[in-house]
Amino acid sequence: MDTQKFVIRQISIFSENRPGRLAAIAHALGEEKINILAFSIAEANGFGVVRALVDHPEKAHDKLQSQGFNIAFTDVIAVKMKDQPGGLYEVAKMLGDSGINIEYSYAYSGKEGAVLILRVDHIEEAIKKIKNSGAVLLERSSFHG
Amino acid sequence: MTYWDPRIEKIPQADLKKMQYKLLKSLVYRLYSFSPFYHDRMKEQKVHPDDIRDISDVRKLPFMFKRDLRDNYPDRLFTASQDELVRYHVSSGTTGKPTVVGYTQNDVDIWTTSLARGLTSIGLGRGDVIQVSYGYGLFTGGLGMHYGAERIGATVLPTSVGNTERQIELMQDLKATAIACTPSYLLHIGEVAEKMGISIKNDTCLKTGILGAEPWTESMRTRIEDWLGIKAFDIYGTSELSGPMYTECAEQQGFHIWSDIALVEIIDPKTEEPLEAGEKGEVTITMLQKEALPMIRYRIGDISSMEDGVCSCGRTHPRIRRIQGRVDDMLIIRGINVFPSQVEYTLMTIPEVGQHFQIIVERKGALDDMLVRVELNKGSFSDKINDLMQIRQNVEHRLRNALNVNAEVELVEPGSLPRFEGKSKKVIDKRSM
């Protein structure tokens, strides 16, 4: 199975926890006409990590790096959910039954329905298990232009 | 091994002592006879020039402090008239009112000679291109280094500070082999060069850094040398002594203090007693040949120790070790003495954090609270919060071990801490605001 087409490049940005940092990131991406499809902020004491799925991750990486941001690529996967009560339960149960450990996750509900973004330990193995369970994984091409 | 003046640089130590004694004796007679300030000071101390019978009798003489210069602003301590002066320099006054230093032609010549010996001992000379990125003007760094570099026959590139991108272009185009600036400005130059896609190590001819005008550490030296592919040498001096005057030799084991020019003592700042070689204390200098503004037992406020053996480079003049802090930049945190240089030393050994840092001290309730802000290096960021927490904990742990006091650490974005072109200001003590 070609697992690679399900691997999505998320950008992660180190950010101090002070007003205006998210605006600075969003402004830089807007200037480059980069569309943000989903994002989340994880915060610890004093700093945070902004994670985002964008349509042009390389362009976003270069732009933010040139502005001095500390930025890294991270591989994630996206599982389609039913956009109705119980939708998350179905996917979460499947992940639990398949023994997939989630490092972190965030979700959005968009044009193609509800999507759960997952960062997992062993991405290839996880992709195989999810496919075997019959759940739908979104391909990289549906995010990156 | 090349020497600028081997006759004096390798003179037997016994002869050097005799020479110092003669110079000191005539200096003291001159000042006692012609300077009301020194005359009164010596009377107060109940010392007469006849009491100076040996070089160790220097300790009978009264001390001088920065405040003596300030209190006598602008020129009341000068022992030369204005028409004998060829130059003024004025200190920036970061710790109070500015101080003015005047120079006769002979003062400038001796200053220049001192640097010529030092620069030669580093291995610089004819054929080198020395980029002087110290400020030119009232500050002594730019002009002092300029004269010293010209004297040894090197080509001077007088870029002064600022306009960093142009400095880097000129460094490349004119093939600068050495740069003289503050260590923090060299770090800034290195970062700006990287942004321009230029590696100082691979894309320039730079081989030597002559770095000073602010305290720095051995671990900073290692980092600069590895990163930029140069040898970095410490240089020492202050405007009261003339300016930047004393460099390390190729051995990198402390500054040679030319004993025909200056008599150095290390004293205990509390008891004011002289300390033995190797013991740490306050650097105190008597300038033996200055004409316009003599300095006797001047308490510079820098903390270091002295080595008085013959250096492996063959020079017989004593060395003072890298400056470890200032009597007045020592922070007292919960009763424990902390020098910013200790913080720098510790941080420079942790690869995940950058060269720039800031110490913020506040009083929270009855307790002093020290916060160290440090930049997370690119490449050490992995998306995982846990990794970041671990880096921070590690830095806190290492600082606690080194300082014996708790410091909270804040990881900040690269490039977000202030950069300095001249002397850097790394400590914000809100307790005194």
Q: What brief labels describe this structure?
A:
heterodimer, A: 145 residues, alpha+beta, VC0802-like, Alpha-Beta Plaits, 6-stranded antiparallel sheet, 4 helices, globular, B: 433 residues, alpha/beta, Rossmann fold, GMP Synthetase, Chain A, domain 3, 2 domains, 6-stranded mixed sheet, 4-stranded antiparallel sheet, 12 helices
The structure class of chain A reads alpha+beta
Sheet/helix structural class of chain B:
alpha/beta
CATH topology of the largest domain in chain B: Rossmann fold
Tally of individual helices of chain A: 4
CATH superfamily of the largest domain in chain A: VC0802-like
Output the strand order for the largest sheet of chain B: 4-3-5-6-7-8
As an assembly, this protein is heterodimer
CATH architecture title of the largest domain in chain B: 3-Layer(aba) Sandwich
**Widest beta sheet: strand line-up of chain A:** 2-3-1-4-6-5
Q: Which range best describes the helical content of chain A: under 10%, 10-25%, 25-40%, 40-55%, 55-70% or over 70%?
A: 25-40%
Strands of chain A, count: 6
What is the strand content of chain A? Answer: 35-45%
The total of helices of chain B stands at 12
Instruction: Find the count of extended strands of chain B (DSSP E, 2+ residues).
Output: 21
Tally of domains of chain B: 2
Instruction: Please mark out the parts of chain B with pLDDT under 50 across 5 or more consecutive residues, or reply none.
Output: none
Mean pLDDT of chain A: 91
CA radius of gyration of chain A is 16 Å
The chain pair forming the largest interface, with residue counts per chain, is: A-B, 21 and 17 residues
Domains of chain A, number = 2
Here the CATH topology of the largest domain in chain A equals VC0802-like
